[in-house]
Write a structure and sequence with these properties.
- A seven-stranded parallel beta sheet has the order 3-4-2-1-5-6-7, with helices on both faces.
- The protein contains 14 helices and seven strands.
- It has 270 residues and is an alpha/beta fold.
Length: 270
């Protein structure tokens, strides 16, 4: 990360104009299972051989989850996945990344994670927050609280969940109330993406959508639409992100991911 980029990002953070957008990689210190492992557990519930199940769905997790719902129900899918994503409080206490997330000065945090690691951390460290899943949550948010937007829903509200291929396509229309709020937030802010891999089509779709929204809403694009923190990226990917989708890439040390992420966050927020 060059000095000029770090100073720009730091200035955005200090002005509370850098909004974290958290992905599954951020939950690694919590020891939660990967999506592939969760899907394999669903296969067993359907009396499928996990390897055959994965191959039959071309390793498309959303499609396999949709098949599970067709055979059972969204409630049973939610129940099975929620069991696998239970937070170990001792692991949460040892996660410096989650602790630091509760200490930074930000008005909002977006996440596509279904686990409750972020909100549990805010509870653990007695920080004021409100979880936002829908428009009613937004209306009832606590005053002066950090708003935690569950962009793909959570297990408390089945209707909010984006777990199947159909629900994902619906979500990517960017027409829901949370999308309207996101449009408002990116007018004067930059999103900081943490815990995402570019091998995931979801994050690339989000970047594409955000770049289009950004061009529609902003006449003057001095700042990047988003900053992506990564531990490895090709020159081709970096060029596309920067020049086509207005995303600034920050590459951290892949040898010690947790330490390099903490160092980065402390550098820009403290």
């Amino acid at each position: 990360m060059t000095d000029i980029v770090s100073s720009t990002i730091r200035e955005l953070a200090q002005d509370r104009k850098l909004i974290p957008f958290i992905g599954a990689g951020f939950s690694i210190p919590l020891g939660l299972p990967a999506w592939s492992e969760l899907i394999r557990r669903l296969a067993v519930q359907l009396d499928w051989d996990p390897d055959v199940f994965m191959q039959s769905g071309n390793n498309n997790y959303l499609q396999l989850a949709e098949y599970y719902v067709l055979k059972k129900s969204i409630g049973e899918l939610r129940y099975e996945l929620s069991k696998g994503l239970q937070i170990d409080i001792n692991k949460l206490k040892s996660s410096e990344a989650h602790k630091l997330l509760t200490e930074i000065s930000t008005k909002a945090i977006y996440t596509t994670n279904y686990d409750e690691g972020i909100e549990n951390a805010f509870e653990l460290y007695k920080k004021k927050f409100s979880v936002i899943r829908n428009i009613n949550d937004l209306k009832n948010a606590k005053e002066n609280a950090t708003l935690i937007y569950k962009f793909h829903g959570d297990f408390i509200n089945d209707d909010s969940l984006v777990l199947t291929e159909t629900s994902y396509f619906d979500r990517m229309q960017f027409e829901a109330p949370l999308d309207i709020r996101l449009r408002s937030d990116i007018l004067d802010n930059t999103l900081l993406f943490l815990g995402y891999s570019l091998s995931d089509i979801n994050i690339r779709t989000i970047f594409y959508k955000l770049s289009k929204i950004n061009k529609e809403l902003k006449s003057d694009c001095e700042n990047y639409t988003a900053v992506l923190v990564t531990f490895g990226i090709s020159e081709i990917q970096k060029e596309i992100l920067s020049r086509k989708w207005n995303v600034q890439v920050v590459e951290l040390d892949p040898k010690d991911k947790q330490k390099s992420l903490l160092d980065f966050l402390e550098k820009i927020y403290k």
